[in-house]
Amino acid sequence: MKRIVYGFLAVIMLAGCGNGQGRKAPSAPSTRDFPKVEVPAMITDPSERMVWILNHFWDKFTDTGHLYNTDSTTVNGVKLEDAETQIGVFATLLQEAPLVTGQSAVSAWYNKLEAFQRAFPESNMLPEMAALTTRYLYDPNSPVRSEDLYLPFVKSLAECPLIDQDFRARYAWDARNCALNQTGTVATDFTFIDTAGKRRTLHSIKAELLLLIFGNPDCQACREITETLESVPELSSLIDAGHLKVVDIYIDEDIELWKSKSSSYPKSWINGYDPDFVIRGDKIYNVRAVPSVYLLDAEKRVLLKDCPTEKIFQAILN
Q: Which of 12, 54, 231, 290 is the least buried, fewest Cβ under 10 Å from its Cβ?
């Protein structure tokens, strides 16, 4: 289910940080399997084991005691495709942990990367692993994306002197956008015009749960959300009973297109468009692709933010 993507991901570049001494000879062996984390046997509680794994997942890989082979196909002795696999494993584990635990682990992960890059300026550790982390946590089509988890990582990139200044500015912009409407905060209010031509606000809508969708009538992934909400009895009954309200907002500029297709939306939804294009301009919400979906509580606090819809549906039903 691919989303319509706005913009592009920045490519990481390092400032010239060589120490002038030439490349260090890699330790033998030149390549290796990814060194897996080993949980101490005395840690038996599942939640404590999860915390341990997240905090120590990268310890052996980023150990500054050795520099293994580093070239276009490897990072510290590990093949790039294997390193990417481990990023995927790590990102998946992050989804299972409490947000605070995950953010702490991501911060620790970044610190290990920067420390290694400082110890071995000739290595490709920071650029390669930062690019992979960005792909998994921030690519709008990633099934494990999370702006909340990516935020501490990108903030550190924006402040890192090892990163070229122009790219630090780009990361600072991404950090600013990721900080919008964080989980646990009250979602920013905005004005929209509904299908009856009435001007309304997000905060004026009363509901125990509110599913906020920034969508597009021509978006296939948006239509799949509609189909799920209508075909899953538990979800449709929540909508019919008024416990869950769906607010779908069109953020693009072709208002006539939206008007011509607005009748295709379910009658039980609240549908509208952004007349001032403030959402499309990344001023109050970070919409990089549609559909971009938020789950809000009765006080309009963000429960889930632009994550895969399967996770949002699961949270609604639980």
A: 231
